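dumping this here so i dont lose it
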Protein backbone atom coordinates (compact mmCIF):
# COMPACT_ATOMS: atom_id res chain seq x y z
CA UNK A 1 0.00 0.00 0.00
CA UNK A 2 1.27 3.47 -0.89
CA UNK A 3 2.47 5.63 2.00
CA UNK A 4 -0.15 8.15 3.03
CA UNK A 5 0.82 11.81 3.30
CA UNK A 6 -1.65 14.52 4.41
CA UNK A 7 -0.43 16.94 1.73
CA UNK A 8 -0.82 14.46 -1.16
CA UNK A 9 -4.19 13.51 -2.72
CA UNK A 10 -5.21 10.14 -1.26
CA UNK A 11 -5.91 8.54 -4.63
CA UNK A 12 -4.67 5.23 -3.23
CA UNK A 13 -7.57 5.14 -0.74
CA UNK A 14 -8.28 1.39 -0.39
CA UNK A 15 -11.61 0.05 -1.62
CA UNK A 16 -14.25 -1.48 0.61
CA UNK A 17 -14.42 -3.94 2.24
CA UNK A 18 -11.06 -3.26 3.89
CA UNK A 19 -8.49 -6.02 4.02
CA UNK A 20 -9.00 -6.54 7.73
CA UNK A 21 -11.57 -8.19 9.97
CA UNK A 22 -14.18 -5.59 10.94
CA UNK A 23 -16.16 -7.94 13.18
CA UNK A 24 -13.74 -8.27 16.07
CA UNK A 25 -15.02 -9.59 19.40
CA UNK A 26 -15.35 -6.10 21.03
CA UNK A 27 -17.10 -4.76 17.91
CA UNK A 28 -19.60 -7.63 17.80
CA UNK A 29 -20.30 -7.24 21.51
CA UNK A 30 -21.00 -3.53 21.11
CA UNK A 31 -23.05 -4.27 18.00
CA UNK A 32 -25.44 -6.46 20.01
CA UNK A 33 -26.05 -3.56 22.42
CA UNK A 34 -26.62 -1.10 19.59
CA UNK A 35 -29.00 -3.40 17.73
CA UNK A 36 -31.05 -3.96 20.91
CA UNK A 37 -31.31 -0.20 21.50
CA UNK A 38 -32.39 0.37 17.89
CA UNK A 39 -35.02 -2.37 18.16
CA UNK A 40 -36.42 -0.71 21.28
CA UNK A 41 -36.51 2.64 19.48
CA UNK A 42 -38.32 1.11 16.52
CA UNK A 43 -40.91 -0.37 18.87
CA UNK A 44 -41.38 2.99 20.62
CA UNK A 45 -42.13 4.70 17.31
CA UNK A 46 -44.88 2.17 16.60
CA UNK A 47 -46.66 3.16 19.83
CA UNK A 48 -47.05 6.80 18.73
CA UNK A 49 -50.54 7.13 17.19
CA UNK A 50 -49.51 10.04 14.96
CA UNK A 51 -46.10 9.57 13.26
CA UNK A 52 -46.08 13.29 12.44
CA UNK A 53 -45.19 13.96 16.07
CA UNK A 54 -41.78 12.39 15.42
CA UNK A 55 -41.04 13.11 11.78
CA UNK A 56 -41.70 16.84 12.27
CA UNK A 57 -39.60 17.21 15.40
CA UNK A 58 -36.70 14.76 15.79
CA UNK A 59 -35.15 15.38 12.32
CA UNK A 60 -35.08 19.07 13.21
CA UNK A 61 -32.99 18.32 16.30
CA UNK A 62 -30.67 16.20 14.14
CA UNK A 63 -30.44 19.08 11.62
CA UNK A 64 -29.43 21.55 14.34
CA UNK A 65 -26.73 19.30 15.81
CA UNK A 66 -25.32 18.08 12.48
CA UNK A 67 -25.08 21.68 11.27
CA UNK A 68 -23.39 22.73 14.53
CA UNK A 69 -20.69 20.09 13.97
CA UNK A 70 -19.78 22.16 10.89
CA UNK A 71 -19.98 25.42 12.92
CA UNK A 72 -23.38 26.41 11.51
CA UNK A 73 -24.97 27.38 14.81
CA UNK A 74 -28.64 28.05 15.52
CA UNK A 75 -31.13 26.98 18.19
CA UNK A 76 -33.93 24.42 18.17
CA UNK A 77 -36.34 27.18 19.20
CA UNK A 78 -35.47 29.28 16.13
CA UNK A 79 -35.75 26.24 13.88
CA UNK A 80 -39.23 25.39 15.16
CA UNK A 81 -40.32 29.04 14.89
CA UNK A 82 -39.25 29.33 11.27
CA UNK A 83 -40.17 25.85 10.10
CA UNK A 84 -42.92 27.24 7.85
CA UNK A 85 -41.71 30.83 7.66
CA UNK A 86 -38.13 30.44 6.51
CA UNK A 87 -37.91 33.84 4.81
CA UNK A 88 -37.55 35.71 8.09
CA UNK A 89 -34.90 33.36 9.50
CA UNK A 90 -31.20 34.17 9.95
CA UNK A 91 -28.73 32.48 7.54
CA UNK A 92 -27.65 29.72 9.97
CA UNK A 93 -31.28 28.79 10.70
CA UNK A 94 -32.06 28.68 6.98
CA UNK A 95 -29.08 26.40 6.39
CA UNK A 96 -30.12 24.00 9.16
CA UNK A 97 -33.69 23.97 7.82
CA UNK A 98 -32.29 22.97 4.43
CA UNK A 99 -30.53 20.05 6.15
CA UNK A 100 -33.88 18.90 7.55
CA UNK A 101 -35.44 19.09 4.09
CA UNK A 102 -32.52 17.15 2.64
CA UNK A 103 -33.08 14.42 5.24
CA UNK A 104 -36.82 14.18 4.60
CA UNK A 105 -36.54 14.40 0.83
CA UNK A 106 -33.88 11.71 0.89
CA UNK A 107 -36.22 9.59 2.98
CA UNK A 108 -38.95 10.04 0.37
CA UNK A 109 -36.66 8.98 -2.49
CA UNK A 110 -35.94 5.61 -0.87
CA UNK A 111 -39.28 4.45 -2.23
CA UNK A 112 -38.04 5.26 -5.75
CA UNK A 113 -34.39 4.21 -5.79
CA UNK A 114 -31.74 2.87 -3.39
CA UNK A 115 -28.98 4.92 -1.78
CA UNK A 116 -26.43 5.96 -4.37
CA UNK A 117 -24.16 8.74 -5.55
CA UNK A 118 -27.30 10.28 -7.02
CA UNK A 119 -28.82 10.39 -3.53
CA UNK A 120 -25.67 12.00 -2.12
CA UNK A 121 -25.65 14.68 -4.83
CA UNK A 122 -29.34 15.46 -4.21
CA UNK A 123 -28.80 15.67 -0.44
CA UNK A 124 -25.76 17.94 -0.76
CA UNK A 125 -27.60 20.12 -3.29
CA UNK A 126 -30.51 20.61 -0.91
CA UNK A 127 -28.20 21.45 2.00
CA UNK A 128 -26.49 24.17 -0.06
CA UNK A 129 -29.57 25.37 -1.92
CA UNK A 130 -27.79 25.04 -5.29
CA UNK A 131 -27.07 22.13 -7.60
CA UNK A 132 -24.01 20.22 -6.43
CA UNK A 133 -22.20 17.44 -8.26
CA UNK A 134 -19.09 15.39 -7.61
CA UNK A 135 -16.17 17.81 -7.55
CA UNK A 136 -13.67 18.08 -10.34
CA UNK A 137 -11.14 20.26 -8.53
CA UNK A 138 -8.65 19.30 -5.80
CA UNK A 139 -9.55 19.89 -2.19
CA UNK A 140 -7.55 19.91 1.05
CA UNK A 141 -8.67 19.90 4.68
CA UNK A 142 -6.74 22.05 7.13
CA UNK A 143 -6.75 22.46 10.90
CA UNK A 144 -8.83 25.56 11.65
CA UNK A 145 -6.39 26.83 14.28
CA UNK A 146 -2.99 26.07 12.73
CA UNK A 147 -3.93 26.08 9.00
CA UNK A 148 -1.88 22.90 8.71
CA UNK A 149 -3.15 20.48 6.05
CA UNK A 150 -4.40 17.35 7.81
CA UNK A 151 -5.89 15.47 4.86
CA UNK A 152 -6.05 15.76 1.10
CA UNK A 153 -8.83 13.61 -0.37
CA UNK A 154 -8.64 11.86 -3.74
CA UNK A 155 -8.70 14.12 -6.76
CA UNK A 156 -9.90 13.71 -10.33
CA UNK A 157 -13.56 13.17 -11.08
CA UNK A 158 -12.97 9.75 -12.63
CA UNK A 159 -11.14 8.46 -9.53
CA UNK A 160 -13.75 9.95 -7.17
CA UNK A 161 -16.59 8.33 -9.11
CA UNK A 162 -14.72 5.03 -9.20
CA UNK A 163 -14.43 5.11 -5.39
CA UNK A 164 -18.09 6.12 -5.03
CA UNK A 165 -19.08 3.18 -7.23
CA UNK A 166 -17.21 0.86 -4.87
CA UNK A 167 -18.90 2.64 -1.90
CA UNK A 168 -22.33 1.97 -3.46
CA UNK A 169 -21.58 -1.71 -4.02
CA UNK A 170 -20.39 -2.08 -0.42
CA UNK A 171 -23.52 -0.36 0.95
CA UNK A 172 -25.75 -2.80 -0.92
CA UNK A 173 -23.60 -5.95 -0.68
CA UNK A 174 -25.52 -9.09 0.29
CA UNK A 175 -23.18 -10.68 2.79
CA UNK A 176 -23.21 -11.41 6.52
CA UNK A 177 -21.65 -8.14 7.70
CA UNK A 178 -23.91 -6.53 10.31
CA UNK A 179 -25.71 -3.45 8.91
CA UNK A 180 -24.48 -1.17 11.70
CA UNK A 181 -20.87 -2.15 11.05
CA UNK A 182 -21.50 -1.66 7.33
CA UNK A 183 -22.97 1.81 7.98
CA UNK A 184 -19.97 2.81 10.09
CA UNK A 185 -17.43 1.60 7.53
CA UNK A 186 -19.34 3.22 4.67
CA UNK A 187 -19.46 6.52 6.57
CA UNK A 188 -15.69 6.54 6.96
CA UNK A 189 -15.25 5.80 3.26
CA UNK A 190 -17.63 8.54 2.17
CA UNK A 191 -15.85 11.11 4.32
CA UNK A 192 -12.45 9.92 3.06
CA UNK A 193 -13.59 10.20 -0.57
CA UNK A 194 -14.89 13.69 0.25
CA UNK A 195 -16.72 13.91 -3.07
CA UNK A 196 -17.98 17.49 -2.74
CA UNK A 197 -16.24 20.81 -2.28
CA UNK A 198 -18.28 21.41 0.89
CA UNK A 199 -21.05 19.70 2.85
CA UNK A 200 -19.52 16.22 2.96
CA UNK A 201 -19.95 15.73 6.71
CA UNK A 202 -23.60 16.73 6.75
CA UNK A 203 -24.33 14.72 3.60
CA UNK A 204 -22.62 11.66 5.10
CA UNK A 205 -24.67 11.94 8.29
CA UNK A 206 -27.91 12.16 6.30
CA UNK A 207 -26.85 9.02 4.43
CA UNK A 208 -26.35 7.22 7.77
CA UNK A 209 -29.98 7.92 8.72
CA UNK A 210 -31.25 6.89 5.29
CA UNK A 211 -29.25 3.67 5.41
CA UNK A 212 -30.90 2.65 8.70
CA UNK A 213 -34.32 3.19 7.10
CA UNK A 214 -33.35 1.38 3.90
CA UNK A 215 -32.22 -1.63 5.93
CA UNK A 216 -35.48 -1.68 7.90
CA UNK A 217 -33.84 -0.88 11.23
CA UNK A 218 -35.98 2.26 11.64
CA UNK A 219 -39.28 3.26 10.02
CA UNK A 220 -38.18 6.88 9.48
CA UNK A 221 -34.99 8.97 9.91
CA UNK A 222 -35.45 9.84 13.59
CA UNK A 223 -32.16 8.70 15.14
CA UNK A 224 -30.54 11.81 16.62
CA UNK A 225 -26.98 10.53 16.07
CA UNK A 226 -25.41 13.97 15.69
CA UNK A 227 -26.19 14.63 19.36
CA UNK A 228 -23.56 12.01 20.22
CA UNK A 229 -21.08 13.19 17.58
CA UNK A 230 -21.15 16.81 18.68
CA UNK A 231 -20.54 15.75 22.28
CA UNK A 232 -17.55 13.70 21.10
CA UNK A 233 -16.49 15.86 18.18
CA UNK A 234 -12.73 15.64 18.62
CA UNK A 235 -12.93 11.82 18.78
CA UNK A 236 -15.04 11.79 15.61
CA UNK A 237 -12.33 13.47 13.55
CA UNK A 238 -9.43 11.77 15.34
CA UNK A 239 -10.80 8.27 14.73
CA UNK A 240 -11.64 8.98 11.09
CA UNK A 241 -8.04 10.08 10.56
CA UNK A 242 -6.80 7.02 12.49
CA UNK A 243 -8.20 4.75 9.78
CA UNK A 244 -6.58 6.80 7.02
CA UNK A 245 -3.21 6.95 8.76
CA UNK A 246 -3.00 3.55 10.47
CA UNK A 247 -5.94 1.49 9.09
CA UNK A 248 -7.13 1.36 12.70
CA UNK A 249 -10.76 0.36 12.21
CA UNK A 250 -11.80 -1.03 15.59
CA UNK A 251 -11.80 2.23 17.63
CA UNK A 252 -13.88 3.95 14.95
CA UNK A 253 -16.41 1.13 14.75
CA UNK A 254 -16.75 1.03 18.54
CA UNK A 255 -17.24 4.82 18.58
CA UNK A 256 -20.06 4.66 16.03
CA UNK A 257 -21.77 1.68 17.64
CA UNK A 258 -21.69 3.36 21.05
CA UNK A 259 -23.19 6.42 19.39
CA UNK A 260 -26.04 4.41 17.92
CA UNK A 261 -26.73 2.69 21.26
CA UNK A 262 -26.60 5.91 23.28
CA UNK A 263 -28.71 8.04 20.97
CA UNK A 264 -31.24 5.27 20.31
CA UNK A 265 -31.79 4.97 24.08
CA UNK A 266 -32.02 8.78 24.44
CA UNK A 267 -34.51 9.02 21.56
CA UNK A 268 -36.62 6.19 22.97
CA UNK A 269 -36.86 8.01 26.30
CA UNK A 270 -37.75 11.26 24.52
CA UNK A 271 -40.48 9.55 22.51
CA UNK A 272 -41.94 8.08 25.69
CA UNK A 273 -42.04 11.54 27.24
CA UNK A 274 -43.76 12.97 24.13
CA UNK A 275 -46.32 10.18 24.22
CA UNK A 276 -47.03 10.74 27.93
CA UNK A 277 -47.36 14.50 27.49
CA UNK A 278 -49.71 14.08 24.53
CA UNK A 279 -51.90 11.69 26.52
CA UNK A 280 -51.97 14.03 29.52
CA UNK A 281 -52.81 17.00 27.28
CA UNK A 282 -55.62 15.10 25.55
CA UNK A 283 -57.16 14.24 28.93
CA UNK A 284 -56.91 17.88 30.01
CA UNK A 285 -58.49 19.30 26.85
CA UNK A 286 -61.25 16.69 26.98
CA UNK A 287 -62.04 17.71 30.57
CA UNK A 288 -61.70 21.49 30.26
CA UNK A 289 -62.77 22.11 26.65
CA UNK A 290 -65.13 19.25 25.80
CA UNK A 291 -66.91 21.23 23.06
CA UNK A 292 -63.79 21.63 20.95
CA UNK A 293 -61.91 18.47 21.92
CA UNK A 294 -60.88 16.05 19.20
CA UNK A 295 -57.88 13.77 19.13
CA UNK A 296 -56.95 15.32 15.78
CA UNK A 297 -56.72 18.79 17.37
CA UNK A 298 -54.36 17.53 20.05
CA UNK A 299 -52.31 15.77 17.39
CA UNK A 300 -51.87 19.03 15.46
CA UNK A 301 -50.46 20.91 18.45
CA UNK A 302 -48.00 18.06 18.99
CA UNK A 303 -46.76 17.79 15.41
CA UNK A 304 -44.45 20.72 16.15
CA UNK A 305 -44.19 23.12 19.09
CA UNK A 306 -45.24 26.21 17.12
CA UNK A 307 -48.75 25.97 15.70
CA UNK A 308 -50.37 28.31 13.21
CA UNK A 309 -54.05 28.70 12.41
CA UNK A 310 -53.21 27.34 8.96
CA UNK A 311 -52.02 24.07 10.53
CA UNK A 312 -55.47 23.45 11.99
CA UNK A 313 -57.15 24.39 8.72
CA UNK A 314 -54.81 22.21 6.64
CA UNK A 315 -55.54 19.25 8.93
CA UNK A 316 -59.21 19.55 7.98
CA UNK A 317 -60.30 20.19 11.56
CA UNK A 318 -61.97 23.58 11.08
CA UNK A 319 -62.23 26.64 8.86
CA UNK A 320 -59.97 29.60 9.64
CA UNK A 321 -62.30 31.48 12.00
CA UNK A 322 -63.12 28.38 14.05
CA UNK A 323 -59.48 27.26 13.98
CA UNK A 324 -58.44 30.60 15.49
CA UNK A 325 -61.09 30.21 18.18
CA UNK A 326 -59.90 26.69 19.01
CA UNK A 327 -56.26 27.75 19.42
CA UNK A 328 -57.22 30.76 21.55
CA UNK A 329 -59.32 28.46 23.73
CA UNK A 330 -56.32 26.16 24.20
CA UNK A 331 -54.23 29.20 25.10
CA UNK A 332 -56.95 30.31 27.52
CA UNK A 333 -56.58 27.14 29.61
CA UNK A 334 -52.79 27.19 29.44
CA UNK A 335 -52.27 24.31 27.00
CA UNK A 336 -50.72 26.73 24.51
CA UNK A 337 -49.01 30.10 24.81
CA UNK A 338 -49.31 32.97 22.35
CA UNK A 339 -46.21 34.50 20.81
CA UNK A 340 -45.76 37.23 18.21
CA UNK A 341 -43.03 36.46 15.68
CA UNK A 342 -42.71 39.35 13.25
CA UNK A 343 -46.23 40.09 12.04
CA UNK A 344 -47.43 36.59 12.73
CA UNK A 345 -49.11 35.25 15.85
CA UNK A 346 -47.99 31.75 16.78
CA UNK A 347 -49.38 29.40 19.38
CA UNK A 348 -46.62 27.55 21.19
CA UNK A 349 -46.89 24.25 23.00
CA UNK A 350 -44.43 25.35 25.67
CA UNK A 351 -44.23 22.01 27.47
CA UNK A 352 -43.47 20.19 24.22
CA UNK A 353 -40.89 22.82 23.25
CA UNK A 354 -39.21 22.48 26.65
CA UNK A 355 -39.21 18.69 26.35
CA UNK A 356 -37.62 18.78 22.91
CA UNK A 357 -35.00 21.42 23.63
CA UNK A 358 -33.98 20.07 27.05
CA UNK A 359 -30.91 17.95 26.42
CA UNK A 360 -31.32 15.34 29.15
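and the seq i came up w/
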Amino acid sequence: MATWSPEQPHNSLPSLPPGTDLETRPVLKQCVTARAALAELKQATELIPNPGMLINTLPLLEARASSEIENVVTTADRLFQHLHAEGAADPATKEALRYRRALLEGFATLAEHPLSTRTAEAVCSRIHGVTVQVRRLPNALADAATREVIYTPPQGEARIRELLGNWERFVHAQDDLDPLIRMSAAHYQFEAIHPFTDGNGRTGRVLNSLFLVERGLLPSPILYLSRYIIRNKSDYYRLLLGITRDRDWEPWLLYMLRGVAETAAWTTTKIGAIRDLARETADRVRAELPKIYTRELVDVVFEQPYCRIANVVDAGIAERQAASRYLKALAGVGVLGERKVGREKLFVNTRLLDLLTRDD
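The chain has two domains: 25-269, 292-357.
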